[in-house]
Structures are given as structure tokens and as C-alpha cells.
Amino acid sequence: MQWVLFFMLVNSLMHPSPEEHIQKIDMMLEGEEMAIIFLPLSDGEATLFKHASGKTVLLNTGAPHTERELKRWFEQFHITEIDELILTSDDREYTGNVDWIMKTYEPTVVDDWKENKTYEPFPHFRMIPLHTAHGDVTMSLQYGRLRLLYMAHADDDVEQKLMKLSLSDVNILKIAHFGLVDYPRTSFLKHVDPQVAIIFKKHGSWPNERLLERLYAAWIDCYETSRFGVIVVKCNLKEYDVMTF
């Protein structure tokens, strides 16, 4: 799939000086195209879903004290409105900027989940909670043929539960808990068989080495936001492409 992406490099994306001009990134979305933007915050998780129609969904808001980083990324990707705010955890690394988001954008908040109940933020985009416990939600997110398994739990019981489901069409696996624990196990990776894994950054911590070795051994392309910067998945209803910059 051939994508056209125009952007200019800047000296620093994460910690710019106040005087630095913000260079913008145009994803050139058309028709049924959507961009999934995994933001490389210094602490916590935040993911944007931007559709060609203009609708934008934010999944989690990062940890406290990352508001400035969020503002910069929003401006860089031309985010002027957030229609819906999706929350999958009540931990600080996911909800740290909720108050600012609510005050600035006044989105509809979705945080009341029931297992296996489908939620559609916009046409063709389906979110299905697969497991809810301890205030966290593991869910399947599907747009056309692209399927993202968003893991929020890391233990044997959850993996055994999910392995009873048909998940062989998962393309992207978001690793739970910033990859700090030794999950997912090999058996689960074989069952899901993703092509791509995403690991967000928790301040002062690094992913589990055994986990990273397991992902590489399974020939999974592992993208850590702390190493690759912003990670963008641009997709339509049939295919997808991964870009980093």
C-alpha cells in the first residue's frame, strides 16, 4: 500500500523550547482511511484515532505532568477537537490529564464497560471489551480487517480466558503494564500471532528483558515509544501500514 505523508523533522519533539515553531504532520486521510497514533509520552499511555471524516477519539490521557507533551502532539497532528474520550483504566498513567481534556475539548466520555458489548465510535470501528477486572479493560479494537488487541491485564488466568477466543486475526498487540512484567507468554503469542507489538513508556522503568526476547523470537515487530518516538498505523478497511518518526 502506497501512502503519501508530508512532514518536516524538528530538532526536538518531546521537549521543545517555548520559542520553537511547531512543524505539523498531515496524514492525508481520505475516504475510509484512519490513523492510529500511539503518542510517545514520557510517562503513561495515550492513543489517538483520527478518521478521514474528521472525527477524533482519544484512548487514555497519559500520566500527570504530561499535559505539555499532549498539547504539542495535538497541535502537530492538527487535533483541534476530540469527540470521544475512551478510558480503559483508573490508574494515574492513563487518567492524568482527564480534567484538562474535559475542560478544553468537552468530549463524550466512555468508561463504563461490559464484557462482549460492542461499542462503535464511528462506522466500521468496533470496540469489544474481552475482560474487565480491577478497574482495567482488555479489549479488541477492529477497523475493517485491522484488529488491535489492547491488553490491560498480564496474568495466566486472563491469557487462558482469551485463548478460548478466536484471535488469530489480530495484527497489533498492545502490551499491558508498559511491558514491565513477563507477559504475554509464548503460548499466548502463538495463539494470537500478531505482526506488531506496541509498548508504551512508564517513567523510570524499562520493559522486561525476557519479554522483549520472547517477542523478537516470535518474529514480532516490537515498537517501544521510548525508542521509536510516535508510532502511526495508517489503515483503510483492507490494509494497514506502520510508520515511525
Descriptors:
single chain; 245 residues; alpha/beta; Metallo-beta-lactamase, Chain A; 7-stranded mixed sheet; 7 helices; globular; disordered N terminus
Given as residue ranges, the uncertain stretches (5+ residues, pLDDT < 50) are 1-20
Q: Major sheet: order of its strands?
A: 5-4-3-2-1-13-14
The percent range for strand residues is 25-35%
CATH superfamily: Ribonuclease Z/Hydroxyacylglutathione hydrolase-like
* Helix and strand sequence: EEEHEHHEEEEEHEHEHEHEE
Instruction: Compute the number of structural domains.
Output: 1
- Tell me, what's the shape? globular
What is the makeup of the main sheet?
7 strands, mixed
Distance between the termini: 19 Å
Structural overview:
The chain has one domain (34-244): 4-Layer Sandwich (Metallo-beta-lactamase, Chain A). 40% of the residues are buried. The strands form two sheets. The chain has a seven-stranded mixed β-sheet, with no helix packed on it. A seven-stranded mixed β-sheet has the order 6-7-8-9-10-11-12. It is 20% helix and 27% strand. It is globular, with a radius of gyration of 17 Å. Strand 3 (56-59), helix 1 (67-76) and strand 4 (84-86) form a beta-alpha-beta unit. It has 245 residues and is α/β, with parallel strands linked by helices. The protein is built from seven helices and 14 strands. The protein has helices spanning 67-76, 92-95, 98-105, 156-162, 186-192, 209-217, 225-228, and strands at 34-38, 47-51, 56-59, 84-86, 108-110, 119-122, 125-133, 136-143, 146-150, 172-174, 196-199, 221-224, 231-235, 240-244.
